[in-house]
Amino acid sequence: MSKKFNRTLVTSALPYANGPVHIGHLAGVYIPADIYVRYLRLKGKEVLFIGGSDEHGVPITIRAKKEGVTPQDIVDKYHGIIKKSFEEFGIAFDIYSRTSSEIHKKTASDFFLKLYNKGEFEEKTSEQYYDEEAKMFLADRYIMGECPHCGNPNAYGDQCESCGTSLSPTDLKNPRSTISGKTPVMRETKHWYLPLDKHESWLRQWILEDHKEWKSNVYGQCKSWLDMGLQPRAVSRDLDWGVPIPLEGAEGKVLYVWFDAPIGYISNTKELLPESWEKWWKDEDTKLLHFIGKDNIVFHCIVFPAMLKAEGSFILPENVPANEFLNLEGDKISTSRNWAVWLHEYLEDFPGQQDVLRYVLTANAPETKDNDFTWKDFQARNNNELVAIFGNFVNRAMVLTHKYFEGKVPACHELTDYDKDTLAEFTNVKEEVEKYLETYRFRDALKEAMNLARIGNKYLADTEPWKTAKSDMPRTETILNISLQIAANLAIAFEPFLPFSADKLQHMLNVETLAWEQLGKVDILPTGHQLNAADLLFAKIEDETIEKQVQKLLDTKKANEASEYKAAPVKPSIQFPDFEKVDIRVGTVLECIKVPKADKLLQFLIDDGISKRTIISGIAQWYKPEELVGRQVCFIANLEPRKLRGIESCGMLLSAENADGSLSLIQPSALITPGSKVG
Questions:
Q1: For residues 597 and 630, what is the distance between their CA atoms, to the nearest angstrom?
Q2: pLDDT tens, 76-105?
Q3: Parallel, antiparallel, or unpaired for β 371-373 and 326-328?
Q4: 106 and 199 co-located in one domain
Q5: Same domain for 237 and 186?
Q6: Residue 356 located in a structural domain
Q7: What is the Cα–Cα distance from 6 to 286, expressed in whole angstroms?
Q8: Is 186 a domain residue?
């Protein structure tokens, strides 16, 4: 029998304030958390939704160095962008704060000191990489080298982004400091460790025996960690950005971000409720839930609970409904490579269409395995589901009511068997949606809500009130009454998922508040109730709009390839007399045509200063024949003739291959007499 709680505390992973929020964050954490919180609020439950920016850690210092500003400048900038994006997107936090606040620094310091004074830490001296030129110990991300697994020369000290393998700095071959570029040396340093191995026994019981209801991906990852055996984990690191270790002799050391960040949930609650925060964190009748992505499972299921247990006065999470990762167009989302759909840019490109993205990301959520977002799927779900089913049904029901009954809800008369079957189909919608929401299966819950719209759409199409209105107005009244009751149900069922659309629909129905308890009822709107004017809930998204988004990603991919491009190694040296054998000259293009049945080949007639010669070149993908006539080009004049597609080619045009594989002809910068030598 499940435990009954009086209130629910919901936290969502703190996003790093070193960049904006992207769709991977939304699908993995913030949309499911927001859906759940909105659902509880609709039910009239006591719930608190805590969020905030994680503003410490190495990624922020790296970004600051790259941009030539301070870490505080970086977090101020991105905290503002993230907070505004969440607000505009409808993520309904009770507070969205930050870990650079004074209240957080004090809360985190006090937490550390309590554990330190209780003897919960182990003090260890170990060797770590040190940059002698920069005069600093190097965090994992400040060390790069060759991955021992795939040979990537630019693997980081904590992970190879090429093959995805987790690494330690000492695993790297030929390590180098990203600060100075120099080879680092090993030097002794002192740190404090949380001995997770001492907590392994109770964690094993608490997770593997007491919480078998956790999602399979969460339970499985926890079991894997526990089966491997837990090890002590450093809670401090050598860095000048973060919460300082509050001990004498610990200058230049801060709390490790994994220790610091989750305490942010507590400090943000204290900031919001300075007098009553403890009932949310220390009363056994509070249900604590952490919504996170899979990269945070170990921290929220093993590490943070161990911290809370060691402190001694806090409750532990009841569930940690983590999602897997969302990919983008078949590739892993990456902040460093700008391979993402950024929330603030989406809100600019698709104004007023927050719910479309909320719908698509929920329908395609990576709940138990990684999933893929594509712009084509985004367009299809909008046009074929939101517009064609949900929006179409509501619009027809509203428009017909205004047309035949002056916008007043008509009476419900005698029901046909089909009417009764239709009503029976959605009376259990509340139970079905609740079942999935309570078990954090938001994709299935959304499907049930959308099924209600399908029922309504089919009902209107089958009963055809625009035809019955010609001969049987009482029947028309019944059809539209039932349709409007379904529309009112949709306004309730979709409020957790699509709050903007649900609010718009409530306004159209002219109702101020609809309670979750009304879901499934067939008499929500009384006879004679006046509706407001009909308006379209969703708009069709055209191909041109999607093509722009796809092109933006293609441009990003090209930019990444260009930035990562490395020139091919220089060929073996040759003697000068060998070079002198090559006769390179300038010629003028007299004619240029495509070679028949050869997509890549162009046929040139060149004035070489002595005669006219034919040269075949494989550059048709990058040049149109007509744009080359009259241009001057460089060519090798003394190559032996060679037949290509039955045409004798006397020479070779010179071109350079770009990073993306395209070819550019080598041309003189000023007009040169044909036949002039190059070299």
A1: 25
A2: 999 999 999 999 999 999 999 999 999 999
A3: parallel
A4: yes
A5: no
A6: no
A7: 6
A8: yes
Please state, in angstroms and rounded to a whole number, the distance separating the CA atoms of residues 357 and 353. Answer: 7
Mean of pLDDT over the chain: 94
Q: How far is residue 138's CA from residue 154's CA, in Å, rounded to a whole number? A: 16
> Containing domain of residue 454, as a range?
388-530
Q: Write down how long the chain is.
A: 679
> Which CATH number do you get for residue 467?
1.10.730.10
Identify which of 93, 50, 42 has the alpha carbon closest to the alpha carbon of residue 449: 42
The response to whether 222 counts as a known ligand-binding position is: no
pLDDT level of residue 61 (50, 70, 90 thresholds): confident
For residues 168 and 188, give the distance between their C-alpha atoms in angstroms, rounded to a whole number: 17
Tokens of 595: 């070679």
Rg of the chain taking only CA atoms, in angstroms: 33
- The answer on whether 163 is annotated among ligand-binding residues is yes
Q: What is the CATH number of the domain that holds 665?
A: 2.40.50.140
Q: pLDDT digit string (tens) for 503-531?
A: 999 999 999 889 999 999 999 999 999 99
> Annotation-wise, does 335 bind a ligand?
yes
Residue 347 has pLDDT above 70, yes or no: yes
Largest CA distance in the chain: 103
Contact status, residue 28 vs residue 366, Cβ threshold 8 Å: yes
Tokens 């007098």 -> residue: 275
> Residue 574 has which token pair?
């040759």
Q: Are residues 106 and 137 in the same domain?
A: no
